[in-house]
Fold this sequence. Notes:
Elements: E1 2-5, E2 8-11, E3 31-35, E4 40-43, E5 48-49, E6 54-58, E7 72-74, E8 78-91, E9 94-101, E10 104-112, E11 115-129, E12 133-141, E13 149-152, E14 161-166
Antiparallel strand pairs: 1-2, 3-6, 3-14, 4-13, 5-12, 7-12, 8-11, 8-13, 8-14, 9-10, 9-12
Amino acid sequence: MVLNFGGGIFQERDVRETPTSDTGALVVGDFCAVYRSSEQSIQTGDTDEILFNAEEYDDSGMHSTSVDPERIVVTTPGLYLIRFETTFKNNGDVVIFRLYEGVTIIGKKQYAQSANEERFVAIETIRKVTVPTFYKITAAPTTGGAQTSMKVEGSAQKETKFTVIKIQ
């Protein structure tokens, strides 16, 4: 897969390799990929941060599983790819997922579901970071259906994953 961002072309590679542009000029710096290793239930009417309790990769200490596990912290200026993906179950209500940069919402996905439907959602953006900041995800199942909560999936298969990669 080849991606074109603002004239730079990037080849898809194994995440354990150091990705470079097709000219070899781009070397990715900070990279953090975290996930949930178990389900997280969120009550209808609540807005909860999704807590990431396991790390797939964190070469720059951008995440902690014990202090603010909902956050990935970026301290190095640059251009970053931010991606969140999850599979969730809901019983007929509307669910809103929000991506935050600090306290500012920079991405949102909203879904209405049928009872017991399982749904995949992804939010992805590219951000220029000039000052230290953090990124987090919230989920908010709204009222109006018969449910009492929703479940954000989690397992060793990394069904709920949050990734921040410095691409320039």
